Structures are given as structure tokens and as C-alpha cells.
Amino acid sequence: MRDGLAKRSFVVRYLMLFGGEVGSKLCVLVAFAYLARALGPRDFGAIELALSTTIFFVLAAETGLGSYGARIVETNPERAGQLVARAILLRSMLAVPAYLVLVALSIWRGSAVLAIYGLTVLLTPLNTQWVFQGLRQMQWVAAGSLARYGTFAALVLLFVRPGSDTRLVAAAEVAGALALGLVNSVLLFRGLRIPLDWRGAWQGAIALLRQAWFLGASDLTWAAMWYSPILIIGWMDPARTEQVAWLAASVRIVMAMHAFVWLYFFNLVPNLSRELHHGLDGWRRLIDQSLSASMWPACFVAAAGTLLAPLVVGIVFGPQYRDAVLPFQILIWMIPVAWFSGHFRFSLIVSGHQHLEFAASAIAGVATVVLAVVGARAYGAPGAAAALLIGGVVNAIAAGVLMYQVIGGIRLSPAAPAVMTCLTAVVTGFAASWLIGRTGGAVLGCSLYAVVTASQWDFARLKRAWEGR
Fold first, then answer.
1. Which of 10, 460, 30, 16 has its CA nearest to residue 256?
2. Burial of 191: CB neighbours in 10 Å, binned 0-12, 13-18, 19+
3. Residues 294 and 264 sit within 8 Å (Cβ to Cβ)
4. Which residues, 6+ apart, have CB-to-CB distance to 449 below 8 Å?
5. pTM above 0.85, yes or no
6. CB atoms within 10 A of CB 7
7. From the DSSP assignment, how many helices (H) and strands (E) are in the chain?
8. pLDDT tens for each residue of the chain, 469 residues long
9. If you placed Cys at 81, which of 158, 197, 382, 398 could pair as Cys (CB 3.0 to 4.6 Å)?
10. CA atoms of 336 and 16, how far apart (whole Å)
């Protein structure tokens, strides 16, 4: 099976996924920007609350098998048919009770939206992108993502109008998830021609649960860090869903950008696994090179987002969402924090220390929940946004300490130039805004960052990465 697969360098694989995800995230942003304007903050907040609730149940059904399966397929591709069969069985066993809980919550709230969104939980057995990740066929991952979010966006734009029933949005989400499952199935069984091996599937599914539950629990704690502030605001005061809208609008933009952080590590996982398998020296060199290169775009996003927040939020969601500007200025700093901490988290995962990665995420999740309760009560959406950012910093510290204890230490200095340049650019931009206006200050700050980046960037290294070296 693997002999006929094209081999591509890290940068080529990343650009394939990047192209697919750009299209996918543009579809999502266009769809949700349209929904925010068409439905208004109150209904938009209700949709985001239902979607954020559903995410926890989807992750519970997926139980971390994506990262675990990709690692196994990368090193042992002939086990793909066996792993897919067991993953389908295990996810089905978990998805049915998860959906029943969602139905009960939907009845309790007196709204069918949550029950319709919950149908995506039943489709999790069809989420087999991890096989393509393990085989480094990232163009197929991108194809599935485009199918899902393109379908969702098309249905929203075609059928949702001001005053429409919010159940239409939930139905569009389910249709998108079904499109992803169909594309994955066609590529898996007709493209890769992987035959499912159901022998010992029941015992194998139980064994998979024992081996991967740490990753699933880690995904849940990671979701708690990102989405618990939305849930806390929404469930604390169900009548004020516009507060959910202010926070969720900011999270929506930041999560669209965070997808590229995830894509980066989605591609980096096989490289981290290979280097750790051969020894710590190669792993340290890879982390060194990754930090020195990847933190520049990450910090640029934070600087530009902070300075241009009023313009960005206004363009995407409209003037009704001006109260989302401050939460967005806070949350945009999650991009460099998550990109930095990802080197620690995924090193723990590929080295077989999933339980420690879970511990770091659990610590961060608990911290976020506690701080979100306090922050939301005192300051509303900005307080909840600050809780999320602090939770991200806690996660980075915890994961870094645990990685140092079980794998080894790394140098953090390669990230310092980008961080210092970012802070300088932000301070310069805000200071200049008093003299030349907000837009002029933002342009000056971003230009300063771009000039320094160009003077520091090693384009020869980028060329070597493109060539797979």
C-alpha cells in the first residue's frame, strides 16, 4: 500500500494542508460572519453555545485515537486496516451514549438545536483523517476539510436568512460532517484500498481505549481550556446569550488562526517521532530550528491582531460586535502561546508520555475553569477571555516542566527575538496611535515587525526545508 505513495518534504506537506485549511477556514469565517449579521448577537450566541457544548461530546467519542493512530500507522502502515476497524467500533460504542446525554440536555433546555448538533457525535467513527496523517498524505486531509466546511458554508448562505430558525444552522453543520465522512471513506477504501480487519475487533477496541484514553482525556481538557469560558458565560445566564456572542466571536477568529498552529504540529509529529527514536540530539536540533522559524509568524499574528482588532472585528462581524474587540485583543495572544507550548505537548505525545501531556492539559483546564467563573462574574466576556489566555500560559509551563523531567531540556532562546520584536511593535503601534491615529499606529507597528523579521529570516534554511533536508 505504502510503496505507491508519494514522499514529500515537511514544507510541501504543510503547504498542502495550509492551502486546504485556508479554504476551509475562509468558508467557516464567511458562514459565521454571515450568521452573526443575519441572526444578531442573541441568536448567534445561542448557536455558539450549542456548538461549544457539542464539541466536548465529539472529543469524548473520538477518545484521542487520531494522534495515537497516526503514530502507529507512521511506523507500521500494514496495521491500518486493523486499527481503522477497531477505531470505528470503539467510537461507535462511545458515540451512542454521548448523543443520548446531548438529547437529554436539549430536552432540559427546551431547544432542539443541541440535539441536532449532537448528530455530529454519531458521525465520529467516519473521522479517519489520522490514517492519511500517518501516511503523510496531507492533500487528502485537506480535501476532507474542504468538503466539510464548504458544504456547511454553502448551505448556510443558501438557506439561512434574517429571522431563520437556528435549527437550519445545526442541520448544515451535520451535513458538513456527513460530507467529511463520505470523502474519508472513499479515499480510504477506494483510494488506499485498505481492507478492514474485524478479527478480534472487540478485544482490540477495548485495548485501544486503554492505550489512547489519556489522549482523549487530554483533548477534553484542551477543549475545557478553549471552550469552558463560553459554556460558563452561557450556562450561568442563559438569558444573556449576547455575552456569549462577544466571547465566541473572538474565539471564532482566533480558532480559525489556531488551525494553522494545529496544522504545523499535525505535520511535525512524524518528524518529532523519528528524531526522538534516533536520539535526543536530533530532537533538540529540530526543536531549535522550529522555534527559531515558527515563532516569527506566530508573534506577528499577535501583534497585528492586537493593533488591528477594531478593524478586524468590525469587518468580520459588523458594528454590532464592537464589544468583542477587547476579548479579541486578549485572545489573539493564544496563537504564540499555543505555538510555543505545542513543542512541549507533542514531544510528550510522540515519546509515549501521553499521561503527562494529559496532566499538563488537566492543570490548565482546571485553572481556566476556575478563573473563567471568577472573571466572567466580575468582567463578563473580557474576564473570561483573560482566563483562557492564562490557562494557555499555565499549560505551556506545565508541559515544559514535564517534558524536561522525562525527555530532556531544550533551549528557549531561539524564540526570544520574535517575542521581543512583537512586544516592541505593539508598544510602538499604540504609542504612535496618539500622533498619527489608530490605523497609522497599527501600520507602523506591523511594518516595524516585518522589517525586523526580514532582517532575521534565514531563507536558505527555508529552501533546505522545502527540499526535505
1. 30
2. middle
3. yes
4. 299, 300, 303, 304, 421, 422, 425
5. no
6. 9
7. 17, 0
8. 444 455 555 566 656 666 777 788 888 889 999 999 999 998 999 899 999 999 999 998 988 888 788 878 877 788 888 888 999 999 999 999 999 999 999 998 878 899 999 999 999 999 888 888 777 777 788 888 889 999 999 999 999 999 899 999 999 999 999 999 999 999 888 878 888 888 888 998 898 888 888 778 878 888 888 899 999 988 777 667 888 999 999 998 898 888 778 778 877 887 888 888 788 888 899 999 899 888 999 999 999 999 999 999 999 898 899 999 999 999 999 999 999 999 999 999 888 887 888 899 899 999 999 999 999 888 989 999 999 999 999 999 999 999 999 998 889 999 999 999 999 999 999 999 888 888 899 999 999 999 988 887 665 555 555 444 4
9. 197
10. 22
Amino acid identity, residue 66? G
* C-alpha dist (Å) from residue 360 to 354, 369, 391, 402, 465: 10, 14, 10, 8, 31
Using the structure block, give the residue that is written with the C-alpha cell 455530529: 120
d(CA 452, CA 86): 51
Domain edges within the chain = 10-466
